[in-house]
Amino acid sequence: MTMSKNDYNKESDPERKIFQAALGSMTIQPSEKFWNSALHNVINKSDAQSRKRARSWKYVAFGMGGVIALLCVHDVLMSNKIDKIEEQNTEIVSLQKKLVELESKPVNTVAAVNANAVNTESNNVVSSGNNTSQSTAAKVISRINNNATNTNANKIVALHAINKSVVSNTYTSHKDIVSNATKPNSVSTNVIASNQTQSVVNSVAPEVNKTNVPVLNNTSEGSVVAESSVNKSDSLITKSSVQISENQDAPMTMHADSSAKTINVADSINNVNAAVAQATKKSFSLKHRGSIGAFFAPGGLNDFYEDRDNDMTDNITPKTVKARQNDWFSYETGVNLGLDITKKLTVRTGLYYNAYSYEIKQTVVKAQTEENGQLGYSIVTSSGLVNIPYTASSVKPGDSIKVRGSSSRGYICVPLQLTYQFFTHYKFGLFADAGIAANIAASTSTQLNWQNTTLQEGNLGITSIEGLQQIHYSYHLGVGATYLLYRGLSINAEPIIQGAVTPISKHTPIETYPLFLGCSLGVSYHF
Amino acid sequence: MESAEKELVLNCLNGDAVAQRELYVMYAPKMLGVCRRYVKNIEEAEDVMQEGFITVFTKLHQFKMEGSLEGWVRRIMVSRAIEHYRKAARIFPMQDIEENTEAMIAPEEVLSTISANELLQMIDELPHMHRLVFNLYIFEEMEHKEIAEVLNIPVGTSKSTLFYSRLMLRKKIAQSMQVAKKNDYVEKRL
């Protein structure tokens, strides 16, 4: 039989007959693994649009959450500044009270600054009493040591020097205020008045609109020896300065200083007030400090599973995976760096290492066709698919083995956390922190003991897990306590919760969201 | 269309995972066989079938419940196979084939001598375009006009491609038959 280009006829077509008969009803059974994987892909892609919509909403929610968080941070920052200003006001009021207390002490000659005038300008700074006062100068130095627990002895030394010259009388004041170390709002004040000069000048104060206020003027022995009177309209030579320093021994590291000039009493007081405000402003910048810490957090793991909605295989479900596993000891450790945004709020990052491990209970694994077309064994775990390199005997369809063992996985984490110190008392503090972390899969290890039906057994070490995500994200929440040991070195303990935001596995029948519960124990150093 | 098939499609459209799996299980082996004829190995065939099933599930709402569901799924698989070659830009190279008419041996004799796998291998050895045209004409029973539309080629090209495909296959079949006969002869002598 010969053929030409035109002799194709369906009925008498020999190729059609041969190939249709041989291959027309050809069927090929896809491998089990391909089925699962293909099913996932089929549904994943067909469901892509709805998932995309869901993701969009997730992004919107995250965006809104971010904006709210930023607003909260801003609010915290602002409230912190307001707290500072209030703190300074409290200190001023405290100073005034101390001065009044001193004024009430029995003295021969009294010198004082009516601190109320600082705020209201309605009162006059007056020296009163004996116009034949022996002393012509007194010096009042204000020293404010503001030592907060978490900011490491921040000392503010303010020097208010008021050289008052009314009819040749000159006064300066020296006030020393030491705040409580762990409770900045509670200020204890010491006022030291010292006599700088022993020159005797008669004070001639105008009698009009005069309010007599005792003026302190201590001698070297501490007794007040001079007394004079001035009123608001008097002319003074004033000089005010504020010093900020790390310690009392070297107090002159920063200062705001007004040049000496002759002004009236009210202006002088305003000048002092401005200097205090400037010192307050500068004190904020000193709060921007950092800390470094290390911790170890032992704990336990609790996996949450989600059945992929495209998983149509009945044999692998979250229930079966959960039933065959037992979560074991897990831990997190690492070092972190903190930057104090405010006295109470710290942003923190670092490098952590998480190790999670679990037991694989005795499970019967049936032989399945692998991707390469060969029969083999594999087991689905919370981490992904573990292929078992079983080579003890040839695997036949229907064969099965029993396996048991353990598996672990390690992650390197890069966190971003916010820590808020909401309570302090003396050296003790309480804080809360929250944040997110990127977790990069660093190592996996599975140790399996197998036993076949002929009671042969062996051990296998497997280092790869199919389907394990290389990176997943998690959140971090915790509330803890800190205790200051010595000069910025503190210890802390914090119960923590760490949960996955994204699943740790992909292309597997189940999605795993591990939840780590632990207690972090660590040390940190503020610098 | 059978009511069971109709129900299956409706359940799939409602997002019933069990029904989707049932549909997949029902047609996957056959469709993998179809895809295999268009590509050279099982891995590629699985890829094509996977793409095909994605199309099936995303376009199931377009199925009009008339005619065979299997036929509809099969057409999708074939079009995915063609698309597979288009993407790979392997459809166009044509080979000069020596025009050499071969006598066709009786189909019954061929089928009794040559296995299905050997015949499949012969199809695999055809140039891509020839394999496509041959598959569409022989197995999908398309007319040259349809093939020309599907592959975006002139009708004449489709005809000549099929002609050369037949020639090549006849040659291969003849060679295979000769080898088989020789083997048979040797076995008998032994």
Report on this structure.
The complex is a heterodimer of chains A (527) and B (190). With 527 residues, chain A is an alpha+beta fold. Chain A folds into two domains: 81-285, no CATH class; 288-526, Porin, CATH 2.40.160. Chain A is built from six helices and 22 strands. Chain A has an eight-stranded antiparallel β-barrel. Chain A has a three-stranded mixed β-sheet with strand order 2-3-4, covered by helices on one side. In chain A, strands 14-15-16 form a three-stranded antiparallel β-sheet, with no helix packed on it. Chain A is elongated. The termini of chain A are far apart. Chain B has 190 residues and is mostly helical. Chain B has two domains: 3-87, Rna Polymerase Sigma Factor, Chain: A (Orthogonal Bundle), CATH 1.10.1740.10; 107-189, Arc Repressor Mutant, subunit A (Orthogonal Bundle). Helices cover 73% and strands 0% of the residues of chain B. Chain B is built from nine helices and no strands. Chain B has helices at 3-13, 17-38, 42-58, 69-87, 107-113, 116-124, 128-138, 144-151, 155-189. In chain B, helix 3 crosses helix 4 (69-87). Chain B is globular. The N and C termini of chain B lie far apart (57 Å). The model of chain B is unreliable at 91-99 (pLDDT under 50). The chains are: A alpha+beta (527), B mainly alpha (190). The A-B interface holds A 1-5, 8, 10, 13-30, 34-35, 38-39, 41-43, 45-46, 309-313, 373 and B 17-18, 20-21, 24, 28-30, 32-34, 36-37, 42, 45-46, 49-50, 53-54, 57-58, 101-104, 106-107, 110-111, 114-116, 119-120, 123, 134, 138-139, 141, 159-160, 162-163, 166, 169-170, 173.
